[in-house]
Amino acid sequence: MTDQNRRLTILLVVALLLILIGGLLAWNTQTSGGTIQIRDVRFMGTNGTLMSGLLYIPPGVTAENKAPGVLAVHGYINSRETQDGFAIEFARRGYVVLALDQTGHGYSDPPAFANGFGGPDGLRYLRSLDLVDPDNIAMEGHSMGGWASAIAAAAYPEDYRSILLVGSSTGTFGAPEGTAEFPRNLGLIFSEWDEFSQLMWGAPVAKDIVSTDKLKTLFNTTETVEVGKLYGSIEDGTARKLYMPRTTHPGDHISNEAIGNAIEWLQLTLKGGNGLDPNDQVWYWKEIGTFLGFIGMVLFMFPFGALLLKTPFFSELAEPMPEAKGIAGGGWWLAAALTAFIPAITFFWLQHRGNELFPNGSFWPQNITTGILMWVVGNALITLVLFLAWHYQINRKAGATINHYGFVWDGRLNWRKIGKSLLLALCIAAAAYVLLLLGAAIFTIDFRLWVLALKPMSPLHFQIFLAYLIPFAFFFLVSSMAINSQLRRVEVGLGRTMVINGVILCLGIVILLLIQYIPLLSGNPLPLSEPLLTIVAFQFVPLLFIVGLVSTYFFHKTGRIYVGAFLNALFITAYIVAGQAIQFAF
User: Fold this and answer.
1) Cβ pair 528, 442 in contact under 8 A
2) Strand duo 186-189 + 240-243: pairing
3) Rounded to whole angstroms, how far apart are CA atoms 271 and 287?
């Protein structure tokens, strides 16, 4: 074995160990060392809608020894795993927890928003379990999941004991208006820097919701609502309490304070449980474990792909890079800045145009994915125009030809090698995907950290994935050509080049987030508004960095743009499609 092969093998083993260690850590955390059962359940909802959820069953809970139940519902464009922090801690305190996939989310049938977002069906199913005390049930919902919970409370007013809205509200998007009596025993966790304060409570700044008439009506007071004060009576079902942790709307999921507030409310309003202190929390070890899995899977693709390139079948793809004919000097910095910041400048506008031009249908049925597709294709076209202008006006005069840009062989397209490049990318992506499937099958996890979440696809997701794949591939082909030829720096080694290209691709989104969050964390509204798409932007910081790593690595290994671009297209398209809501009713 050569030294290079030995290094690649060691890196491959490290990647697999990260996945194994991460999976064991996540499993041990969410099951409390194997004492809590986690079942992947399916049940039939309204109008034949198949619903999905994760059911957490604490030790000792049986039909003869029933426990309190909690319905935990995620928000828009999330899934049941997003509620892991809450679900893990609720189950550790002796509650049976159903972490529900809303309709059109995760593995629940589409369309999104149908059947009260799935909330009534979730509550009905939880009450039907012989493990659950039917007179001792609470609901917890984040954002749109709070609306699902409020709708369930209105549909079955006698079937729950308390409710907890996290970053959510009553009287929004179909949820019934709140009064002094409805919902019963309501706890509200609304973070100090919640991006949706205007939508939820009519206050531009989250701290100011305490003075809104909407919240005062709900809390049955004419005075400013006090954070942490118990209003009303738990026995009468009119209890109200406002918590305001120091975090953001998506930050509720990874906040010890917010999760501790939720535990406290359930312990106040439900009978039973083991009384474990709300501050005794371990959920974050699960996040660390699934993040190790994510890192391991991404890391796996590099040595696995490099080793495949050494096989007789794929070895002809391992060619030297073409002669460098990129931009030098101050022009490089200008090109890098344009590459970084044009995607950030167009992030909101192009996504909105995508939804206007391509309304949801059976071909492209995901609202957010279609918006992202319009954004990336639009940026690919902008990049291509700028690249061609640079080539014909400047670089061709310096002796550059299409041979220098890594997409042709001796001046022409070689379709056999392009096809073999696609096959190599498919082999790498398929092997990595198998690791994801094994994580789900063995440890009941996906690979994630906070809003960064990679889930296995359902058969419907795979169908949708195929529909979105080609436009995404176009973007990655153009992007790879630009960063690996126009921005190529021969004096920099592979490792540094990978990092530089990754930073260039994600830097604009980082700046966009800073522009939004520095004012927000200073007590002001988001200056550009767009709270939903701003939260969507978070995941593109690591994703675009990974795109830069993959594109650069395989360009250096093959001398062409295709393997890296195809692999990025497969990985990112699958990532986005599996994690988005499906708005069309198939």
Assistant:
1) no
2) parallel
3) 29
Q: Tell me, what amino acid is at 141?
A: G
Q: Is residue 72 within 8 Å of residue 86, measured between CB atoms?
A: yes
Average pLDDT over residues 59-81: 97
Q: Which of 96-100, 327-331, 477-481, 514-518 has the lowest mean pLDDT?
A: 327-331
- Count of CA atoms in the C-beta half-sphere (13 A) of 59: 8
Domains and their CATH numbers in the chain: 31-281 (3.40.50.1820), 325-579 (no CATH)
Phi, psi of 236 (to 5 degrees): -85, -10
Q: Tell me the three-class secondary structure of 139-189, residue by residue.
A: EEEECHHHHHHHHHHHHCCCCCCEEEEECCCCCCCCCCCCCCCCCCCEEEE
Report d(CA 289, CA 311) in Å as an integer.
33
For the stretch 314-324, pLDDT in tens is 999 999 999 99
* CA atoms of 566 and 572, how far apart (whole Å): 10
What's the pLDDT band for 266 if we cut at 50, 70, 90?
very high
Question: Measuring CA to CA, which residue among 112, 116, 101, 15 is closest to residue 455?
Answer: 101
The C-alpha angle 337, 338, 339, rounded to 5 degrees, equals 90
Measure the CA–CA gap between 30 and 528, rounded to whole angstroms. Answer: 38
Six-digit token string for 131: 């493990």
Looking at residue 185, its pLDDT comes to 98
- Predicted TM-score (pTM) above 0.90: yes
Q: How far apart are CA 306 and CA 318, in angstroms?
A: 9
Alpha-carbon span 140 to 154, nearest angstrom = 15
Main-chain dihedrals φ then ψ at residue 180, nearest 5 degrees: -65, -20
Looking only at the bridges linking them, the beta strands covering 132-142 and 96-101 are unpaired
Comparing C-alpha atoms, which of 156, 145, 211 is closest to residue 182?
Answer: 156
